[in-house]
Write a structure and sequence with these properties.
The relative contact order is 0.20. This protein has about 220 residues and is of the alpha+beta class. The protein is built from eight helices and ten strands. Helix 4 packs antiparallel against helix 5. The chain is about 35% helix and about 25% strand. It has a single domain, classed as Aminopeptidase, CATH 3.40.630. Strand 7 and strand 8 form a beta hairpin.
């Protein structure tokens, strides 16, 4: 899941009452274990999360879906332009997938349980889950964890170890998706951090229609 800040999506669900509201409104509980089952889950508009308190893996769906534009609506803070112009970071794909998964999970409150880590590794080995990373020399600076189906990139999480590492990864990832003619970048749930990059919301029916269309057009991510 693409986090809603440089930390994690639950930072935007600050109170236990808000978390309960999320569960009541968005959750459909069923376990997904095989690769086909998991992909069917995502193809129907769900995403996986482990509930923080009990570490139970469930599939969630939202009435509103956050998307990152892959056209002229995409933007980023002016302060980031200097970082990009100076080539402080080098992009890579799947250079260290496990480290990205671990980095996304390494926080005080995490929805990425050991079980979900195993799911991501299974999807990665099957060619569906990927990491898009930024590096400074031999040091992993930050990156995205995502799932690719057809022409959609479903952002699961992001993290950074070096300041601006995940923000630079966002810009480089969008440029990569544009160059490969992807049509949908799913951010799952929007927040002010993502809004700075032009993220916007669509209703569930619109998202499901765009998702279905994007899946019909295979694209090469790696």
């Amino acid at each position: 899941m693409l986090v809603l800040s440089p930390r994690d999506c639950l930072n935007c669900i600050k109170s236990s009452a808000q978390r309960e509201s999320l569960k009541e409104e968005y959750v459909e509980r069923f376990m997904c274990y095989s690769v086909p089952q998991i992909l069917q889950c995502y193809a129907q508009g769900y995403f996986l999360m482990s509930e923080v308190d009990v570490q139970t893996l469930n599939c969630f769906s939202s009435s509103l879906r956050g998307l990152i534009p892959l056209d002229e609506r995409f933007r980023y803070p002016k302060s980031l332009r200097r970082v990009l112009i100076q080539y402080r970071f080098t992009p890579a794909i799947n250079r260290d997938f496990k480290a990205v998964v671990d980095g996304c999970a390494d926080r005080e409150t995490t929805w990425i349980s050991d079980e979900l880590k195993s799911v991501y590794m299974m999807l990665h080995n099957a060619g569906y889950a990927h990491s898009f990373e930024t590096w400074q020399g031999d040091e992993l600076a930050g990156g995205f964890l995502g799932i690719v189906m057809g022409g959609v990139f479903i952002g699961e999480s992001m993290f950074y170890r070096i300041p601006e590492g995940s923000k630079a990864a966002m810009v480089m990832l969008v440029e990569h998706l544009q160059s490969r003619d992807f049509t949908l970048f799913d951010a799952q749930i929007i927040n002010p951090h993502l809004a700075r990059f032009g993220a916007y919301e669509v209703d569930k029916a619109t998202y499901e229609a765009q998702l279905y269309e994007a899946i019909q057009h295979p694209r090469q991510f790696t």
